[in-house]
């Protein structure tokens, strides 16, 4: 209850008024008492000494009166009652016996005398004993509940004490009055302070409460609507500053949100995986690419140790100084992931960010490149060694060798040289196709004509091997768009392989057809066939099922690779469909419309 500003204000005002009234009251009361006491003693001093010293002389004279000294004294005192301030109620005069201080006469009755003789009275009695008229009892005592003056009067052997006594009833009455006035003022002051506190709370606490409500609204993320500035005082300035702060906060939050959206979009669509952990190793973020790469759904309760604990210790990454980072590799299934691990922000609020990069293809390509170079070197070294050894033999013989043998040696040298030329030509074609330099020369031509022309070109070769090479053309074949000479090169290779890899006297059947938008050509043979394990590799560069047989028949292992490249450039397919019995079937599929009308990629 006392926490509210309103109650605090009320309390402060009440305390202020009360303490102010208490101080003022005390001050007034003491001042009034002092004034009254001072004026009493001043009055007495004026009457009994100084200018009015004749009054004392008269009293002494009256005391020496032989007939009625007391009556005489009473007369003089009565005459001076006005100057003495005697009002017969609060202030009275007394004529007392000089030696005993006993009551003789007064303006009131005897009961008005205090029972205990005062210090002043004792002083006066002492003066009588010492016969010293200068000793007057006029000491003030602020604590006493009366004021008195005792004046010794001696004359004609008589001794009296004129005793003026004021019972302070006036000052008490005044103080009571004063107290009542102060109490009334206090009550009015308290009422005013309560009223004031209400007014103050309306003018001060009201705007503060509005400001508080506004701050709570902003804290809850609602930036709509500014707080109205209702005054030009400090609260008005505070409200203005608060509005500015809310605007800046809104702009900053919008900028942060914008940045976050950008980052989210980036993370969502980037091909590299990104995974973030907080400083305790708990997952904060994982983009879809990372999910795919890790080959498991990464949930919110995953920790660093679950996913990458085996790769790199978490604390070591946290301890890294930015912009340093750690690198590592992680094998997931058949994929190789390269990891870049780096800390972000400070240790307390930051964590660890991991970027995953799938380098499987890169590694495979690197492997293929190495294998390719090794294959090329090997393929060229064999004929080169042959050429060199036959040439050396001829040289060493120095003509001392039968002409027939020399000729056969020279034949071998020429064959090996042709082989090398063949390999180099094939490599050149492949490299051109790889680099995209070999532009296709597109034209529209009858697909059937191309098959027939290639079949004719192979007829002699097939005949020499005793093969039955047949082509059964369909009723109609459409015109297709493509690079005729390169496509004929593909057909040459496929039909040539069928002839090469079929033992003499075999059968090679060529068939063709078309479906909607596609033409196909099948080359079927009943030759040695391709073992199941090799079927996926025969399109690889330098891949040969039987190296010796291939080399024997002049094969380089590059023919089908080149054929596949050409077919793929036409967005067609070269594949091995299922084959019944011994032998092989190779199928060529091409889009009728040429490279722009797509077919699904080669498997
Ligand atoms: P090559 O110059 O050795 O013939 P290719 O790339 O044309 O090279 O063929 C690759 C390999 O595929 C051949 O070495 C051969 O082992 C196999 N092959 C291709 N066609 C046939 C087929 N019709 N019958 C059996 N094996 C084949």
Write the layout of secondary structure elements.
Layout: H1 5-48, H2 53-63, H3 69-79, H4 81-84, E1 91-97, E2 103-106, H5 119-130, E3 147-155, E4 158-166, H6 169-219, H7 234-269, E5 273-278, E6 283-286, H8 288-294, H9 304-308, H10 314-318, E7 326-332, E8 335-344, E9 351-358, H11 360-397, H12 403-435, E10 443-446, H13 447-464, E11 468-472, E12 479-482, H14 484-500, E13 507-515, E14 518-525, H15 547-552, H16 559-569, E15 573-575, E16 584-591
Parallel strand pairs: 11-13
Antiparallel strand pairs: 1-2, 1-4, 3-4, 5-6, 5-9, 7-8, 8-9, 10-12, 13-14, 14-16, 15-16
Helix pairs in contact: 1-6, 2-3, 6-7, 11-12, 12-16, 13-14, 14-16
The structure holds adenosine-5'-diphosphate.
Q: How would you describe the overall organization of this protein?
A:
It is a single chain. With 603 residues, the chain is of the alpha+beta class. It folds into four domains: 48-167, Beta-Lactamase, CATH 3.30.450; 270-358, Beta-Lactamase (2-Layer Sandwich); 363-434, Helix Hairpins; 439-591, Histidine kinase-like ATPase, C-terminal domain (Heat Shock Protein 90, 2-Layer Sandwich), CATH 3.30.565. 51% of the residues lie in helices and 17% in strands. It has helices spanning 5-48, 53-63, 69-79, 81-84, 119-130, 169-219, 234-269, 288-294, 304-308, 314-318, 360-397, 403-435, 447-464, 484-500, 547-552, 559-569, and strands at 91-97, 103-106, 147-155, 158-166, 273-278, 283-286, 326-332, 335-344, 351-358, 443-446, 468-472, 479-482, 507-515, 518-525, 573-575, 584-591. It has a five-stranded antiparallel beta sheet with strand order 6-5-9-8-7. The radius of gyration is 66 Å and the shape is rod-shaped. It binds adenosine-5'-diphosphate. Adenosine-5'-diphosphate binds at residues 493, 497-498, 501, 525, 527-530, 538, 543-546, 550, 555-561, 584.
């Amino acid at each position: 209850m006392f926490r509210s500003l309103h109650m605090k204000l009320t309390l402060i005002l009440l305390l202020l008024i009360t303490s102010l009234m208490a101080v003022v009251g005390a001050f007034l009361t003491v001042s009034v008492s002092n004034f009254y006491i001072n004026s009493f003693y001043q009055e007495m001093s004026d009457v009994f000494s100084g200018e009015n010293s004749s009054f004392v002389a008269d009293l002494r004279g009256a005391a020496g009166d032989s007939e009625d000294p007391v009556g005489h004294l009473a007369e003089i005192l009565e005459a001076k009652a006005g100057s003495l301030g005697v009002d017969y109620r609060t202030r009275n005069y007394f004529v007392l016996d000089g030696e005993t201080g006993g009551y003789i006469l007064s303006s009131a009755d005897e009961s008005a005398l205090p029972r205990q003789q005062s210090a002043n009275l004792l002083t006066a009695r002492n003066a009588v004993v010492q016969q010293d008229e200068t000793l007057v009892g006029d000491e003030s005592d602020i604590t006493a509940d009366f004021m008195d003056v005792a004046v010794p009067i001696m004359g004609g052997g008589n001794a009296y004490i004129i005793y003026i006594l004021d019972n302070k009833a006036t000052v008490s009455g005044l103080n009571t009055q004063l107290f009542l006035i102060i109490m009334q003022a206090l009550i009015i002051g308290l009422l005013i302070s309560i009223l004031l506190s209400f007014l103050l709370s309306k003018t001060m606490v009201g705007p503060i409460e509005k400001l508080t409500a506004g701050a709570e609204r902003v804290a809850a993320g609602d930036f709509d609507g500014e707080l109205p500035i209702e005054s030009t005082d400090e609260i008005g300035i505070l409200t203005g500053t608060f509005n500015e702060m809310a605007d800046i906060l809104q702009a900053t939050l919008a900028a942060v949100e914008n940045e976050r959206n950008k980052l989210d979009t980036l993370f969502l669509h980037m091909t590299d995986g990104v995974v973030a952990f907080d400083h305790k190793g708990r997952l904060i973020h994982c983009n879809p690419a990372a999910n795919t790469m890790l080959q498991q759904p990464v949930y919110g309760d995953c920790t660093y140790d679950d996913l990458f604990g085996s790769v790199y210790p978490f604390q070591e990454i946290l301890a890294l100084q930015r912009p340093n980072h750690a690198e590592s590799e992680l094998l997931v299934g058949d994929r190789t992931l390269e990891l870049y691990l780096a800390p972000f922000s400070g240790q307390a609020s930051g964590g660890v960010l991991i970027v995953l990069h799938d380098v499987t293809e890169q590694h495979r390509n690197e492997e293929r490149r190495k294998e390719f170079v090794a294959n090329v070197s090997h393929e060229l070294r064999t004929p080169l060694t042959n050429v060199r050894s036959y040439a050396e033999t001829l040289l060493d013989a120095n003509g001392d060798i039968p002409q027939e043998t020399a000729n056969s040696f020279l034949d071998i040298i020429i064959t090996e040289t042709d082989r090398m030329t063949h390999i180099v030509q094939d490599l050149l074609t492949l490299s051109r196709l790889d680099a995209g330099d070999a532009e296709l020369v597109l034209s529209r031509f009858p697909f059937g004509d191309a098959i027939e022309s290639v079949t004719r070109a192979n007829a002699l070769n097939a005949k020499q091997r005793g093969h039955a090479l047949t082509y059964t053309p369909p009723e109609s074949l459409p015109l297709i768009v493509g690079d005729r000479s390169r496509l004929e090169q593909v057909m040459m290779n496929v039909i040539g392989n069928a002839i090469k890899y079929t033992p003499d006297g075999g059968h090679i059947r060529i068939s063709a057809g078309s479906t909607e938008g596609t033409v196909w050509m099948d080359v079927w043979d009943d030759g040695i066939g391709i073992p199941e394990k090799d079927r996926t590799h025969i399109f690889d560069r330098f891949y040969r099922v039987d190296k010796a047989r291939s080399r024997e028949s002049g094969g380089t292992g590059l023919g089908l690779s080149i054929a596949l490249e050409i077919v793929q450039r036409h967005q067609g397919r070269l594949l091995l469909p299922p084959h019944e019995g011994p032998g092989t079937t190779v199928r060529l599929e091409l889009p009728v419309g040429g490279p722009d009308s797509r077919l699904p990629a080669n498997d």
